[in-house]
Task: inverse folding
């Protein structure tokens, strides 16, 4: 007898197919809709299921199967080539934990040639996380601005999202980045490259593309940067589409 719990393999397939969000609106908090109803046929056939948010799950469940199949064939995130969500804090979060190192008070925990990579500020007693992980061309692959998350969906095998947690995987069994608001500190774990240098945030270390910190707590002030990677006076300008030729540039300040 089949369980009513959707198998993990099926759920991952449906998430990826829909660009990791609701096929109708892109919302990252998902349920899995049986287009061919469970009462009609007990199954987990990915051809007859689609990833939807709760609202659209209820809405499409009342409409013809054709509406669900149309959404499945042209998901919102696939059309827009982007993933969005909002990470919810619990007002108990105290600081930012990158791997094994705790950052308290700093606006910017880590920067790369003056560009903030990870940081936070406290607004109305709640942590607002900021994060920037660039692609090779230094346009953002993952970016969080005060808990508002956006990401390019190309290149990810899975994105698993809860309201206070998100995990990015390049391939099965390999974690690219995890942002976790469920504990006392906002925890960041991951392994990624920036300009050919590997950054590793794990329970045993915090590796900034060479320099490494283990099991430390760093205290600072708002506006300050804890770890600045790069050369004094040399700043990276992020590319933008207002440039005649959009590309990153280094400038002396």
Result:
């Amino acid at each position: 007898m089949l369980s009513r719990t959707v198998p993990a393999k099926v759920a991952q397939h449906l998430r990826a197919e829909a660009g990791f969000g609701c096929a109708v609106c892109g919302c990252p908090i998902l349920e899995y809709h049986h287009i061919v109803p469970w009462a009609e046929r007990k199954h987990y056939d990915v051809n007859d299921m689609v990833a939807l948010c709760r609202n659209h799950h209820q809405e499409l469940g009342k409409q013809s199967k054709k509406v669900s199949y149309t959404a499945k064939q042209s998901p919102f995130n696939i059309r827009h080539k982007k993933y969005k969500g909002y990470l919810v804090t619990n007002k108990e979060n105290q600081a930012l934990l990158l791997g094994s190192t705790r950052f308290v008070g700093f606006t910017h925990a880590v920067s790369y040639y003056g560009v903030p990579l990870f940081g936070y500020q406290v607004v109305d007693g709640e942590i607002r996380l900021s994060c920037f992980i660039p692609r090779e061309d230094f346009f953002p692959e993952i970016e969080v601005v005060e808990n508002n998350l956006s990401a390019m969906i190309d290149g990810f095998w899975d994105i698993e999202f809860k309201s206070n947690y998100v995990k990015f995987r390049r391939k099965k069994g390999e974690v690219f980045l995890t942002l976790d608001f469920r504990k006392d500190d906002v925890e960041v774990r991951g392994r990624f490259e920036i300009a050919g240098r590997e950054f590793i945030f794990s329970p045993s270390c915090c590796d900034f593309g060479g320099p490494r910190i283990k099991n430390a707590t760093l205290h600072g002030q708002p506006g300050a940067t804890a770890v600045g990677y790069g050369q004094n006076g040399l700043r990276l300008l992020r590319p933008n589409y207002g440039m005649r030729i959009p590309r990153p540039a280094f400038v002396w300040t």
